[in-house]
Design a protein that fits this description.
The chain is α/β, with parallel strands linked by helices. Helix content is about 45%, strand content about 20%. The chain has 18 helices and 14 strands. It has an 8-stranded mixed β-sheet with strand order 3-4-2-1-5-7-8-6, with helices on both faces. Strand 10 and strand 11 form a beta hairpin.
Length: about 475
């Protein structure tokens, strides 16, 4: 049975725009009872998890990476000092009341001191040389990840109370508990005493549990927490607040005047986006919402009046159309050729095993009688390791890889007549040769493999032909 409440997740960039967040999302003109029957799951403030772990894009080491590298006695300690300083600066920017600022800083100091004491103990053990800390390092990563969300959730609840709202900090990081439970148990126990009609829970996106959130979901852990809370509480709707609309293409590539909000789509489309690394929601999180028939809404934090894009399990566009053009700028095409493959089983399984072992993300694959090609979202170093492994196992095979870009046109129903021929004509007119093409029977996406330097021009050409001049604007506005 569905409840009267929503479960809403706020991303790190939105969290960092604190004034806008309060004006457009957390309060947004509400008063009295209208403020409640909402549950918020918050990410760390933008950049904080990078300081705690490592920079998501550049790889610049944070506390965790410096602790693992053991780069001098004070390497990780200096990094932790940077975290403390950044959290204090953030607090000073947000709090007008001196008492609340003191409360927020005291909380930060307590948590950082506790985590630092743990790292000190592990550093002493490591200095003896006889202790293998591999398993403990996994725990350290989990501990550090939760620190960012504990800070943001605690501060947000304080700020709400300063504004007369009964905000309640719900700490799922369980940083000082010994017994580990599974994620669902942790959530149910934490929410049991809360009356949603009179309390606004602000919940940490990180949840300490037996499964290990970072270990299982990497940086997507907060969306898993969000999804499970929605499922377990029977939310009427799940909402993600991002710093942008879910649009038909990247406005920076096709122009802000040409990109348009999707308005409505389904979980099939969300899965395709996740597969390409452009996540509307983590695929594991979306699965739970879809199975329990909870709609997901993606809203722009900076556009208060817009209802965003609604994602449902059963939605199909009224007429076949392309809803979004996106892709992967840097992919790798791994080609495995073996003349003796015809009619022989086992090659595909061996390739998949090698890719899994080295953590290569498979976007798609194709095969014929003697060739299997995998399109991978990974780096050249990983590909090299995969090829070495496979070459040892199959010395007579011809195995190669080369960088490519993938551009995908996606929609809840793209079965319209001549879509592929129109796409090919648009690419040809733009002077873009395709390396390969994938078109699945399900009619949710078509993938075009092109040279890396043609990625942006391919996005623009396909968006112009299949969205801007294909009646997409009328359909999108009607769906919104």
């Amino acid at each position: 049975m569905k409840g009267a409440h929503s479960v809403e997740k706020i991303g790190g960039t939105s969290m960092a725009a604190t004034a806008t967040l309060f004006d457009n999302v957390l309060i947004a003109g509400r008063k009295g009872a209208d403020l409640y029957n909402r549950i918020f799951v918050v990410s760390a403030y933008a950049g904080m998890t990078d300081l705690l772990l490592e920079h998501k894009k550049s790889g610049k080491p944070g506390v965790y990476a410096r602790f693992v590298a053991d780069d001098g006695a004070n390497g990780w300690r200096d990094a932790m000092s940077d975290v403390r300083r950044a959290m204090h600066v953030r607090n000073a920017e947000m709090f007008a009341r001196g008492e609340s600022l003191k409360n927020a800083d005291t909380f930060v100091n307590m948590r950082i001191d506790a985590v630092s004491a743990c790292l000190d103990d592990l550093a002493r053990l490591r200095s003896h040389g006889r202790f293998c800390l591999k398993e403990q390092l996994v725990t350290v990563r989990e501990l550090l990840a939760g620190l960012g969300e504990a800070h943001s959730a605690h501060s947000t609840a304080l700020l709400l109370r300063d504004r007369g709202v009964n905000g309640r900090f719900v700490d799922l990081t369980l940083w000082d508990q010994q017994d580990m439970h599974d994620l669902d148990e942790c959530i149910v126990e934490a929410l049991k005493p809360i009356d949603l009609a009179t309390t606004l829970p602000i919940i940490t996106g990180y949840a300490e549990c037996a499964e290990g959130m970072v270990r299982r979901y990497a940086r997507g852990y907060s969306e898993m927490t969000f999804s499970r809370i929605a499922v377990l509480t029977g939310a009427r709707e799940a909402i993600i607040h991002k710093e942008f609309h879910l649009s038909s293409a990247d406005p920076k590539l096709v122009g802000a005047d040409k990109a348009r909000k999707i308005g409505r789509t389904n979980y099939d489309v969300a899965d395709q986006l996740a597969n390409l690394g452009m996540e509307a929601i983590h695929p594991g999180a979306g699965r739970g919402l879809r199975q329990t028939d909870i709609p997901l809404r993606v809203r722009n934090t900076f556009d208060r009046e817009d209802e965003g894009t609604l994602i449902c399990g059963d939605y199909v566009s009224d007429t076949p159309r392309v809803e979004i053009v996106t892709g992967i700028r840097h992919a790798q095409a791994l080609q495995f050729f073996e003349q003796d493959m015809v009619g022989v089983k086992g090659y595909d399984a061996a390739i998949l095993e090698a890719l899994t072992r080295h953590g290569a993300w498979i976007v798609s694959k194709s095969s014929n009688a003697n060739t299997i090609t995998h399109y991978l979202s990974t780096d050249a170093a990983t590909i090299s390791q995969v090829i070495d492994d496979l070459q040892k196992r199959y010395p007579d095979a011809s195995i190669s890889a080369h960088p490519v870009a993938m551009v995908s046109v996606i929609g809840s129903d793209i079965s319209r007549l001549a879509l592929v021929s129109d796409a090919l004509a648009a690419l040809a007119q733009a002077g873009i040769d395709i390396v390969a093409m994938q078109h699945q029977i399900r009619n949710v996406d078509v993938q075009f493999i092109v040279d890396v330097d043609k990625f942006e021009s391919a996005i623009r050409a396909l968006h112009r032909a299949l969205v801007e001049t294909d009646g997409g604007k009328v359909e999108t506005q009607r769906a919104a």
